[in-house]
Structure formats: structure tokens, C-alpha cells
Design brief:
The structure holds two protein chains of two kinds. By secondary structure, chain A is of the alpha+beta class. Chain A has three helices and five strands. The model of chain A has no long low-confidence stretch (mean pLDDT 93). Chain B has a domain at 52-205: Nitrile Hydratase, Chain A (Alpha-Beta Complex). Chain B is built from eleven helices and four strands; from the N terminus they run αααααββααααββαα. In chain B, the strands form two sheets. A two-stranded parallel ribbon of chain B has the order 1-4. A two-stranded parallel ribbon of chain B has the order 2-3. Chain B is globular. The chains are: A alpha+beta, B alpha/beta. The interface between A and B is medium-sized, with 35 and 32 residues.
Chain lengths: 122, 233
């Protein structure tokens, strides 16, 4: 019996000369949110791996930019590039993230990027 | 008596992650994915990278509004003009030493100050800014900057008035960030090279503001100790 062949370089072949995340451009389909939309970060269970900071869970945010299309980190960690989705740059108010953040500095914000599956409309 | 004051031998602490890196690297070499010499050459190349290209990107953006527009819209394309190709960089011809190739240039205004952190690890725009400083990788900076940005910036010597919005950029996915600070007063008529000198690494991370006369390579005064300690070693 021959050994099953698995192409361990499929990702690098796809990205060479194009770049990652640029190589996933056009693969995510229509974006669910647009710039200026108010969204809330879902509090999904942490199974194995993801890159959604715990401090953002359940917090409201505003979409600042649609940054790129890419498989989310939780898929890519397992070499699964089949379901790219839109990534959004989100702006949070610091007072929405931290209960003890001083009202004197209520203007302060935090920006970070999350894939579409973590967001719900508000 | 002198014996008692001999310093204890230095012991290098090795973290679990360093052990993991060595194990994975040795397995990869054994499997023939790359050779020990490839790895050494790669490390040597990585250590040649520094913040000079990013400083020139900022200086160019200060001088040329068209270039500033390009930098803010497409950081990867703008990087080409300062000699950094994120996508076809040597020696791998792949978008390393950053694993990802999305550079975003964050434009400060007099009322908005950006500062960059990576709370989940220590993502850093290495192709254009070189290796990250040690403090950038520490859990102390990473966990405190997002929650107490003003206090942490004050520790760096940067105190900003309440009407300036501080925007912490948590670099958690595939974008990498450099800050484009406001061009300081007193730099009218300066050349690109002069401006690049004051756009130091810390200004590009966002924990400092550029100032005329403050450069990374400036000579600092050395003061003799007031109560010098005698060393017998």
C-alpha cells in the first residue's frame, strides 16, 4: 500500500508572489457588515485555538474598515483554508471594555481585527 | 572576605517555548525540510533588519502628501519605495520574515494618538521595523497597555492631555502596524534623512513622540556614580 500523499506546501504555494492574506482575495463572498455598522462580539466557546481576545467578548464596536479576506485563525491552525471570510477592523470605546476605565478619558479607543463569524449586528 | 563577594555564576533561564522551538527546529533539520546552515543564514539575515526603512517611510510621508495618502491606503505598496518588498523578500522569496503581508500605517493627528501592542503574542512589522524590542514582547507591556494605556505611556515618559484620544491598536490577526506620528514643530525645511533620524523605533510603535534633536543614535551624557561601589572582580 502506498502512503497517502498530503501536500504540506499548499499554503505556501498559493501565497508565494502574492502574499498572505492577499492570496485569499475574492474568496469570502459578500461581506455581511459595512463601514460604520455597529456590531457586538459574540462570546463563542474557546475550542482549541482562536485569536479573539477575551476582553472583547460581548463588547459593542464600530466597523472601521473591511481589511482583507482570510480563513479565520481557528481554521488555519488546522491547515484548513477552505472557508475564507471577511475580516473587520473594529473600534471599541475603552469605557465599554473596562468597567474601571476613567470617564475623564472617555474618548480613548482600542482597535483590533476580527473575522465575520465572531460578530453579530446590534 | 573577598570570596564572599564573588558573584554567583550566571544561569540562562530557558523557557518552555524556547525548548519547543529547538525541538521543532531539530526535527525539521533531521527530516531534511531545511539544513542547519539554512537556519543560520536565515537568522543572520533577520538580524540585519532594522527600523531605518520605516523611519524613511514616515519621513517621506511628512514631505509628500501624495505618498502619505498611498502609505495610509496601501502600506505594502508604499514600502516598496523605501526598499522593502513584503511579498517577494529574500532569501525565501516569500512574505517572510513577517508571516503575513498586510501593513497598515496608522496616521496620528493632533487629537488622535495610536500605540501598537500584540496582546496574544508579539506580532510586529519585522520586515520594515526589524526585531521588536524586548519590552514589547513582555507580558507586562502586552497585558497592561490595553487596559491602562495612559499609565503605561506615562512610564515611557509620554503624558498626553485628556482631549487627545489614545487609540490602542491590538495587532491580533494578519495586519502589522506602524504609527505615522504628527510631524513635530521645528523641522521646517528638513531633508528626508534629517526627518528619518527623529522618527525613531519607539515613535513608530507609538510609545514616544518625535522631537527635533532626539535621535536613537544621539550621544547621551555619562555621569560618574556619586557613591561608586568597589568591585573585586
Amino acid at each position: 500500500m502506498s502512503k497517502p500523499h498530503y501536500d504540506r506546501e499548499h499554503h505556501v504555494k498559493k501565497a508565494t508572489g502574492i502574499g498572505d492574506p492577499q492570496c485569499f482575495k475574492g474568496e469570502a463572498g459578500p461581506a455581511k457588515f459595512k463601514v460604520g455598522d455597529k456590531v457586538r462580539v459574540k462570546d463563542l466557546p474557546d475550542i482549541f485555538y482562536n485569536r479573539t481576545q477575551v476582553y472583547t467578548r460581548g463588547a459593542p464596536a464600530t466597523v472601521a474598515e473591511l481589511v482583507y479576506e482570510s480563513p479565520p485563525a481557528e481554521d488555519e491552525a488546522w491547515d484548513n483554508c477552505d472557508n475564507p471570510e471577511w475580516f473587520y477592523s473594529l473600534i471599541f470605546k475603552q469605557t465599554d471594555l473596562w468597567p474601571d476605565y476613567s470617564d475623564t478619558f472617555a474618548n480613548d479607543t482600542l482597535e483590533t481585527e476580527l473575522p465575520e463569524r465572531w460578530l453579530e449586528p446590534m | 572576605m573577598a570570596e564572599k563577594h564573588k558573584p554567583a555564576p550566571m544561569v540562562d533561564e530557558v523557557s518552555d517555548f524556547e525548548i519547543l522551538e529547538v525541538a521543532v527546529r531539530e526535527l525539521a533539520i533531521e527530516k531534511g525540510l531545511f539544513s542547519a546552515d539554512d537556519h543560520r543564514r536565515w537568522t543572520e539575515y533577520m538580524n540585519t533588519l532594522g527600523p531605518a526603512p520605516a523611519a524613511h517611510l514616515v519621513a517621506k510621508a511628512w514631505l509628500d502628501p501624495e505618498f502619505k495618502k498611498l502609505a495610509v491606503e496601501d502600506g505594502v505598496k508604499a514600502s516598496l519605495e523605501v526598499g522593502i518588498d513584503w511579498i517577494n523578500s529574500m532569501p525565501t522569496n516569500f512574505g517572510t520574515p513577517s508571516d503575513y503581508c498586510n501593513l497598515r500605517v496608522l496616521e496620528d493627528t493632533p487629537k488622535l494618538k495610536h500605540v501598537v501592542v500584540c496582546t496574544l503574542c508579539s506580532c510586529y512589522p519585522r520586515p520594515i521595523l526589524g526585531q521588536s524590542p524586548e519590552w514589547y514582547r513582555t507580558p507586562n507591556y502586552r497585558r497592561r497597555l490595553v487596559r491602562w494605556p495612559r499609565q503605561v505611556l506615562a512610564e515611557f515618559g509620554l503624558q498626553l492631555p485628556a482631549d487627545v484620544e489614545i487609540r490602542v491598536e491590538d495587532s491580533n490577526q494578519k495586519s502589522r502596524f506602524v504609527v505615522l506620528p504628527v510631524r513635530p514643530e521645528g523641522t521646517e525645511g528638513w531633508s528626508e534623512d534629517q526627518l528619518a533620524e527623529i522618527a525613531t523605533r519607539d515613535c513608530l510603535i507609538g510609545v514616544a513622540l518625535p522631537k527635533p534633536g532626539v535621535t536613537a543614535n544621539a550621544k547621551l551624557p555619562v555621569h560618574p556614580a556619586v557613591n561608586p561601589v568597589d568591585h573585586d572582580h
